[in-house]
Every structure is written in C-alpha cells, then in structure tokens.
Amino acid sequence: MIPDNLIAILRQSPRVTVLTGAGISAESGVPTFRDAQTGLWANYRPEELATPEAFQRNPKLVWDWYLWRRQLVEQAKPNLGHIALKKMVTLFPYFALITQNVDGLHQQAGSEDVIELHGNIRRTKCFAAAHIVADVLDPHLAHCPICESQIRPDVVWFGEMLPREPLVQAFHVSQECDVFLSIGTSALVQPAASLPLEAVQEGAILVEVNLAPTPLSQTADFVLQGPAGTILPDLVAQLT
Ligand code: OAD
C-alpha cells in the first residue's frame, strides 16, 4: 500500500526523476549485478570481465560473456515495473528516467529519452573512437568500418569514465526535481549513487523502492519495501 501522504505529495509535484538499477529488471529474469553469476560463468566475477584490461588480455572471453548476457537480455521481457514507469511519464509535466542498467528493457517497455548512464549491452562501439557499429555478425573478428579499431560492447566497464552527455543530463534532472525515486539499486556505485543525494540537497523528496534496505534508506523520506513489479503499478494506479 502506498502511503496517502506520498500520493498527495506526488499529485502536487510537477517534476519527478527516477533512477533505476538492476532490481527493476530482476522480475524479468535478468540477474542483478550482485547476484551470483550462474551457469558457465559462475566462477567469474563481473569485476574480472567488465574491464578494459580483461578485454585487452582476452577479447574472446569478454565477448563470449557479453554474447551470453545479450542472449539472456534478448529473452527477457519488460515487467510490470518497467511498464508502470512508462505510464508515469503521462502523470507529470517533467518526468526523467535515468538507468544504470544496460539491458534496454525500459526502451522495450516504451519509455523514451532514457538516460543510460552505463551504456547499452545491445549496442556495439569501437574501442578507439566510440563509433557505434551496427549489424555485426561475428564480433570476435569484426573491426570498426570507420577507423578499423577493435569493437566492444557499448557499456561502461569498471574503472572507465561514464559517457559525458548522459551524466550531465542525469545530474541536471536530479538537481531540478521535486521528487526523486531510487528504484532497485543498491546505491553503492558512483557516480550514480550521488544522484539521489544531489536531489535531496536541492530540497527534493526522496523515495526508495527496494526489496531490502540500502545505504540510501536512512536518507529517504519514504522507503517502499517490496518488488518494484508490484509497488510501481500500485503507485501509478493510485495516481491515476
Ligand atoms: P545491484 O545488484 O548492486 O543491486 C540491485 C538492487 O536491486 C539490490 O538493492 C536489490 O535489493 C534490489 N532488488 C532486487 N530485486 C528487486 C525487485 N524485484 N524490486 C526492487 N528491488 C529489487 O545492482 P545495481 O544497484 O544496479 O555498473 O548496480 C549498480 C551498478 O553496479 C551496475 O550498473 C554496474 C555495477 O558495477 C556498471 O556496470 C558500470
């Protein structure tokens, strides 16, 4: 059940910013980042594979891991949480959706202008100049048609800078909002974890939707504990 006073606050808040993490896709069957890796990747940690060094050392291994994750993501469907967030854009004059996820499920649910902080696993870019490379048949062999450099998944790796434009946008919509919703993220990884704090610093109301407490919970004005796939449709239903 969503607290009545939160519904009242949202009804009079024109600017709402949402940050999602892996938890919003958990109910679509996409493992969260800190879930144990399953199957043949069980004995690898993301930190060992999602780095430029790992790719330089063994591009085939890293590409095989991403091709495995791509087919996981391609089998996944947006869940009721993604769909509720897509509907939310009609409820507020200024609505911004920032995601740390690389699965593209928000866009599949129909959300537009998604601010992708960590890239998108479905996209491929080149190493040298981040040219987006489409229609790659075998990424192990292909090279960038523009600059001939190696190609890689268009995702942010550990130790890499985030893409500048989405980051600038994310800070802007976090500092300008009336209500900030942090959904399905452990609120551990920077710079994304700073966004809700920026919002609070500018006077926004902070709402957290998560299965479990996080370091952000004690700062939140509202902590809605439970699955995003249940809580978000309830929230939208009570607002419409
Ligand atoms: P995590 O795996 O760290 O956290 C997932 C969060 O979702 C946890 O707090 C869970 O309690 C919560 N959760 C799980 N199922 C849920 C559900 N059904 N409804 C609501 N919440 C649920 O994933 P992230 O916080 O997204 O960065 O991780 C942030 C970043 O850390 C990732 O983007 C990745 C990693 O380093 C890069 O790849 C650059």
Question: How would you describe the overall organization of this protein?
Answer:
This protein is α/β, with parallel strands linked by helices. The chain contains ten helices and eight strands. It has helices at 4-11, 23-26, 46-49, 52-57, 59-75, 80-88, 105-108, 164-175, 195-201, 228-239, and strands spanning 15-20, 94-99, 115-116, 119-126, 151-155, 179-183, 205-210, 222-225. The two termini are 15 Å apart. The structure holds 2'-O-acetyl adenosine-5-diphosphoribose. Residues 21-23, 26-27, 32-34, 50, 100, 118, 156, 184-186, 188-189, 209-212, 214, 227-229 line the site of 2'-O-acetyl adenosine-5-diphosphoribose (OAD).
Q: Count of DSSP E strands?
A: 8
Rg calc: 18 Å
User: What is the residue-mean pLDDT, rounded to a whole number?
Assistant: 94
Number of helices: 10
Order the strands across the largest sheet as they lie in space.
3-2-1-6-7-8
Category by helix and strand content: alpha/beta
- Detail the poorly predicted runs: none
Instruction: Summarize the amount of helix as a percent range.
Output: 25-40%
By oligomeric state, this entry counts as single chain
**Major β-sheet, in short?**
6 strands, parallel
Order of helices and strands: HEHHHHHEHEEEHEHEEH
Approximately what portion of the residues adopt beta-strand conformation?
15-25%
